[in-house]
């Protein structure tokens, strides 16, 4: 057990909780005023993704031994990066329990517990730190997803900033999510002689499933943000109304004055929904990927 890992985890937990509290003192954009907690929560998640994602990328560039020997090869500061991530997930889980009902947050709470358990294995044993750092590359794609969602919350879609965020999301999804998942899958196959066959099948199935989810997410964003955002020629005799206008995210905005329901009232806080819970997909990808570390312990 590394006492420094536990200390850094505690400091990270306090820091992310403090950041969320500090954001309450700052003004929330007027367009996101009806969902201030979600705005603050995503901002904190964005900070974590940038910190750990960029840290993981720089760490692997400066110390490629972590990829060459994912089980034992790592510098001391790599363990600190993993501990920072554990502290964030603990803080984020507490934040969700405090601001949402268990029925609303149980899926994210469950996968946060899995992530914390897997990352804690690296902290407590000082093994698999390199593999944990590789999995943190997924946070680079998560950062783009968080930024995209913040733009949706602030009703900045469609816009140039949203288009840039969408393309960045697709690019990082391929480079920093699918590539690491594929690399970890190949690594598991090559290490199968050290792992019982049932566990190899279990770990491989998890990685293939996460890869399929990632591809589906990319297609969903490509269709909703790129293909559907192109102007279409109006249908003769059809007049667009606020009630029939869809948002750029591929989901219909809550109808404000639908012709099918003339008596309907505006829904406070209605907004475009984000496709397929990207934050859940990112976290699920990370947690399932890191479970490979437990298999090989």
From TrEMBL:
Location of this chain's protein in the cell: Membrane
UniProt record, GO biological process: membrane assembly; phospholipid homeostasis; plasma membrane organization; regulation of membrane lipid distribution
Domain TLC: start-end pairs: 34-227
InterPro entries documented for this protein: TLC-dom, TLCD
Recorded GO CC terms: plasma membrane
Transmembrane regions listed in the UniProt entry: 42-63, 75-91, 159-179, 199-223
Keywords of this entry: Membrane, Transmembrane, Transmembrane helix
Main localization category: membrane
Full protein name: TLC domain containing 2
Organism for this UniProt entry: Canis lupus dingo (dingo)
Lineage start: Eukaryota, Metazoa, Chordata, Craniata, Vertebrata
GN (gene name): TLCD2
């Amino acid at each position: 057990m590394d006492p420094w890992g536990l200390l850094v985890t505690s400091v990270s937990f306090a820091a992310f909780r403090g950041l969320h509290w500090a954001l309450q003192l700052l003004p929330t954009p007027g367009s996101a005023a009806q969902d201030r907690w979600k705005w603050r929560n995503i901002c904190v998640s964005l900070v974590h993704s940038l910190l750990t994602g960029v840290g993981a990328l720089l760490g692997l560039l400066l110390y490629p031994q972590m990829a060459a020997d994912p089980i034992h090869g790592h510098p001391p500061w790599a363990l600190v990066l993993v501990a920072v991530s554990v502290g964030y997930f603990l803080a984020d889980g507490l934040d969700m329990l405090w601001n949402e009902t268990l029925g609303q947050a149980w899926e994210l709470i469950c996968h946060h517990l899995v992530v914390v358990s897997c990352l804690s294995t690296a902290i407590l044993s000082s093994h698999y730190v390199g593999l944990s750092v590789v999995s943190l590359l997924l946070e680079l794609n998560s950062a783009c997803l968080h930024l995209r969602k913040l733009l949706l919350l602030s009703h900045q879609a469609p816009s140039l900033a949203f288009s840039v965020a969408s393309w960045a999301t697709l690019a990082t999804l391929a480079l920093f999510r699918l590539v690491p998942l594929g690399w970890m899958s190949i690594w598991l196959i090559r290490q199968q002689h050290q792992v019982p066959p049932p566990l190899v099948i279990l770990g491989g199935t998890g990685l293939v499933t996460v890869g399929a989810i990632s591809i589906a997410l990319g297609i969903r964003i490509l269709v909703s943000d790129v293909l559907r955002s192109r102007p279409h020629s109006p249908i003769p005799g059809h007049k667009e109304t606020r009630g029939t206008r869809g948002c750029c995210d591929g989901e219909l905005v809550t109808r404000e004055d639908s012709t099918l329901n003339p008596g309907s009232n505006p829904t406070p806080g209605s907004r475009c929904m984000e496709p397929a819970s990207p934050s859940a997909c990112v976290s699920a990808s990370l947690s399932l990927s890191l479970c490979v570390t437990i298999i090989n312990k």
